[in-house]
Amino acid sequence: MISFINVDCTFGKKAGIKNVNFTINSGDFVFLTGPSGAGKSTILRLIYMDLFPEKGKVSIRNFDSSTIRNHEIPFLRRRVGMIFQDFNLLQDRDVYENVALSLYVSHYKTREIKNRVYEVLNQVGLGHRVHFYPSELSGGEQQRVAVARAIVKEPVVLLADEPTGNLDPRVSLELINLLNKINQRGTAIIVATHNYALIPRIPNARLFQMEEGEVTKIT
Ligand SMILES: Nc1ncnc2c1ncn2[C@@H]1O[C@H](COP(=O)(O)OP(=O)(O)OP(=O)(O)O)[C@@H](O)[C@H]1O
Ligand SMILES: [Mg+2]
User: Fold this and answer.
1) 29 and 16, same structural domain?
2) Residues 162 and 118 grouped into a single domain
3) Ligand 1 mean position to 201 CA, how many Å?
4) Are residues 140 and 176 in the same domain?
């Protein structure tokens, strides 16, 4: 479903990633690990097509980095959800609106928006926080809002860049269990992290180890 073929993506003279090759299938749960600067975020940004390779090719379903046109990128991003370390919620919108916003933008019908938003908020365990504002929520709850927002359009893959970076160990495990549940419903998950304690929590996870821009080991 996702493939990298001989991908190089550099920043000026500095190597971001070099000659990266892998494929990810629809049911996969992948941990992307490695020290700071190894290239984990670069890989996620290439999948989101927020960056493009200088050499090689990235493909996600039928979207291909070498042929995609600018007006097609929003269609790719409907299929790819993304969450970050710092949640990135809109502070002046409540939980409902944070999750519903991308559906308004994509012209979903009002009833469908309401149904989808309530469904995902229940799925992430926030059915009782619908009209709270981000500042009224714990870090773990805010990250679950971000997850709800990322999955509301039923993406084929959910990307998570250091998603537990601002969470304590207990809440981090709750988040990883939630990602596991989402994966079991058929969404591929890719978690970039240096929190190695998370890895054994997903027994079937694949591990991509990175060092200095290269994927050095895939299991
Ligand atoms: N926009 C940019 N401009 C210049 N260099 C960059 C840029 N983004 C990343 N790099 C460089 O590319 C390399 C890989 O960076 P990347 O952010 O992918 O690492 P990472 O594994 O996500 O690190 P961290 O664990 O700190 O998040 C690093 O050497 C980094 O300095
Ligand atoms: Mg990073």
Assistant:
1) yes
2) no
3) 27
4) no
Name residue 69's amino acid: R
From ligand 2's centre to the CA of 41, what distance in Å?
Answer: 4
Residue 133 and residue 171 in one domain: no
- Residue from 8, 9, 11, 85 whose mutation best tests the ligand 1 pocket (most atoms within 8 A of CB): 11
- pLDDT tens digit string along 100-123? 998 998 889 999 999 999 999 999
User: How far is it, in rounded angstroms, from Cα 202 to Cα 134?
Assistant: 29
Q: How large is the average pLDDT for residues 46-61?
A: 96
Strand partners, 55: 8
Pick from 40, 50, 208 the residue to mutate for probing ligand 1's pocket: most ligand atoms within 8 Å of its CB: 40
3-state secondary structure of 66: coil
pLDDT, residue 12, reads 83
Are 144 and 92 within one domain?
A: yes
- Give the helix, strand, coil percentages of the chain, each rounded to 5: 35, 25, 35
Identify the pLDDT of residue 131. Answer: 98
Same domain, 170 and 209: yes
Q: Which ligand is nearest to the CA of 39?
A: 1
Q: Of the bound ligands, which one is closest to the alpha carbon of residue 33?
A: 1
* Number of domains forming the structure of the chain: 2
Convert the pLDDT of each residue in 153-210 to its tens digit: 999 999 999 999 999 999 999 999 999 999 999 999 999 999 999 999 999 999 999 9
Amino acid (one-letter) located at 51 = L
Identify the domain boundary among 154, 179, 198: 154
Q: Give the pocket of ligand 1 (CB within 6 Å).
A: 11, 14, 16, 34, 36-42, 194
Looking at residue 7, its pLDDT comes to 97
